[in-house]
Write a structure and sequence with these properties.
heterodimer, A: 78% helix, B: mainly alpha, MetI-like fold, 9 helices, 79% helix, 0% strand
Chain lengths: 231, 228
């Protein structure tokens, strides 16, 4: 039968994995913000040679299961690196490192699409107007374009963050000790898996709820940047 | 890493995508049914039904697929045994992944159906009825072609994301592409792992590209119904 006392034990154990889950999420989103911004600009300005590469990258990452990418990187990266550099030992690397790589790639590919559509949703006239009053391209982006694009992108960013957070539960498959990994390890000692996973479910729901509230708050704070649409 | 071995494993793994397709087919079949029920709930006049449908959707958005899969896998047999006294056949693992994906996809499909329903103006139905179409023919000839156009751009994304989630089936022991790789890995004593995973990933990728191609062709074909 379902044991509530064991559920509580699992909750406590799974909660110890929250820092890892959040760490992976924050690192992936941060990497994605920087790299995705560059990729989005490449896509918008159609920079030759780089544009097709970014399209290929996004298609590959979004078109294959995360779990397959995770295994590909976890099993193949060490072998391929060590085949080229024999004196490097990647077998003892913390699996967290591979999780960073895979989830950053995934966050970056989605971020590229989000930022691309957000940046191109800002009217062309805004850029032209900024340039006409003597701003440089960079100033125009920073002061005029990005604030407006950010407001448009916020709901999608919220989805991306919760999506990555959910994705990190796959880290268990390469033995990262995040929420799911810890709960499963504890549950496997007594074969009470159901309680373990229900504990995970509760924690993920709470975390996602907090993230959504945070983004809702940010949306309200940034409302005054919202571009007025002229009918 | 060698190209020949990768090609060899491509051929070996390719038939196993049929398992994924089977999972996806059943999921769509039941997902559309429950999605329609859920969409009806969201559009209904009763506040409780509406709330219930929306709560369910937001609940499903917050849960990682793998967690729900394990909960279904460990919980469903116990639940059925306790409530209706049915013993589930432990060998039929496809059932668990299909139940999990239906739980998920019905909430996504309900959002699509709702969006499509709201996108077609009410006047279309009224106009169709006024020229003597029955409700059924009006839906088939007037409403559906227009609603399909709203759904189609999202269809490719949906199929691909369903494929990505169906790929989790191997964690409960279904022998799909990743499950087959796990078996092959055991037999090969850890050799050729790189080629196996590259081949598997390539198959998934090709499937996504093909899906997107077919859907965009379909969209172009159906666009002739588009309102000016």
């Amino acid at each position: 039968m379902f044991s509530f006392s064991f559920l509580l034990a699992c909750l406590a154990e799974a909660a110890r994995g929250i820092p890892y889950t959040l760490l992976i999420t924050v690192v992936s989103i941060s990497v994605a913000l920087v790299v995705g911004c560059g990729f989005a600009l490449i896509r918008i300005h159609k920079i030759p040679a780089l544009n097709p590469l970014v399209i290929l990258f996004v298609s590959l990452i979004r078109g294959t299961p995360v779990i397959a990418q995770l295994f590909l990187v976890f099993f193949c990266l060490p072998m391929m690196v060590m085949a080229t550099f024999p004196d490097v030992n990647l077998y003892s690397v913390n699996p967290l490192f591979f999780a960073f790589i895979v989830f950053s790639l995934n966050a970056t590919s989605s971020m590229t699409e989000i930022l691309r559509s957000a940046l191109s949703s800002v009217e062309k006239g805004q850029m032209e107007a900024s340039q006409s009053i003597g701003m440089t391209n960079f100033q125009a982006y920073r002061r005029i374009i990005v604030p407006q694009a950010a407001v448009t992108a916020l709901p999608a960013l919220c989805n991306l963050t919760t999506g990555i957070l959910k994705m990190t539960s796959l880290g268990m498959q390469i033995s990262v000790l995040e929420i799911t990994g810890r709960a499963k390890t504890l549950a496997s000692e007594s074969y009470r898996y159901l309680e373990g996973f229900v504990a995970c479910l509760i924690i993920y729901l709470i975390l996602n709820f907090v993230i959504e509230k945070f983004f809702r708050f940010a949306e309200i704070r940034m409302k005054h940047y919202k571009a007025l649409t002229i009918e | 890493m060698s190209i020949e071995k990768t090609l060899y494993y491509l051929g070996l793994l390719l038939p196993n995508i049929l398992i994924s397709l089977k999972i996806m087919g059943y999921t769509f079949l039941f997902g559309i049914f429950f999605g329609a029920v859920l969409a009806a709930g969201k559009l209904s006049r009763h506040k409780i039904l509406r709330q219930l449908a929306y709560r369910y959707t937001s609940l499903m958005r917050g849960v990682p697929t793998i967690i729900l899969l394990f909960i279904v896998y460990y919980g469903l047999p116990a639940l059925l045994r306790a409530v209706v006294g049915i013993e589930l056949d432990a060998q039929n693992k496809l059932l668990y992944i299909i139940v999990t994906l239906v739980l998920f996809s019905s909430s996504q499909i309900s959002e699509l159906i709702r969006a499509a329903y709201e996108a077609v103006p009410k006047g279309q139905m009224e106009a169709a009825l006024s020229i003597g179409e029955t409700q059924l023919t009006a839906i088939r000839r007037i409403i559906l072609p227009q609603a399909a156009l709203v759904i189609l751009p999202n269809l490719a994304d949906m199929i691909v994301s369903l494929m990505k989630e169906a790929a989790l089936a191997f964690v409960i022991g279904v022998v799909d592409i990743l499950g087959r790789i796990n078996l092959l890995k055991l037999n090969a004593y850890g050799k050729n792992v790189v080629e196996m995973y590259i081949a598997g990933t390539l198959i998934f990728w090709c499937f996504s590209l093909l899906t997107q191609l077919v859907c965009s062709l379909l969209e172009r074909r159906l666009s002739r119904h588009k309102l000016a």
